Amino acid sequence: MNQIERITEMDRCLHASGEAIEALSNALDAYEANRKSLKKLADYYGSTLWMKDFEADEAGMLPTDLKRGVLSEDTVYDLLTDHHELILRMSRIVTKAIEGKLL
């Protein structure tokens, strides 16, 4: 690789890395802003109120036009599982960075 090719490639790396870091920072900002909502959802999902709402839905006692994705056992469970997997993934990335193995 000649000097011009090397500088061109490194410039692409600089810009791609900057965009990726900015995107991750924005995603982390959105994640942090939503953490209270996620905690609220997790608390609700494991509560007697959720079960009461679920049973009312099963009994046809709720309006048919009511959005009720939160009463789907799989949807909430899958979201909470995805969240847990994401936390583990971020932990592994941070551990590698601390150990100097990320770069």
Question: Could you walk me through the main structural features you see in this protein, from its secondary elements to its overall organization?
Answer:
This protein has helices spanning 3-45, 48-58, 73-98. By secondary structure, it is mainly α. Helix 1 crosses helix 3. It is elongated. It is built from three helices and no strands. The two termini are 22 Å apart.
Distance between the termini: 22 Å
Q: How much helical structure, as a percent, in the residues?
A: over 70%
Oligomer: single chain
Shape: elongated
Averaged pLDDT: 95
What's the alpha carbon Rg, rounded to whole Å?
22 Å
In total, the number of strands is 0
> Strand count, sense and closure of the main sheet?
none
Order of helices and strands: HHH
Helix and strand composition category:
mainly alpha
Strand content: under 5%
* Unreliable parts: none
Task: Count every helix, treating DSSP H or I runs of 4 or more residues as helices.
Answer: 3
Task: Give the tags.
single chain; 103 residues; mainly alpha; 3 helices; elongated
Compact overview of the structure:
By secondary structure, this protein is mainly alpha-helical.
Please specify the SSE layout and strand pairing.
Elements: H1 3-45, H2 48-58, H3 73-98
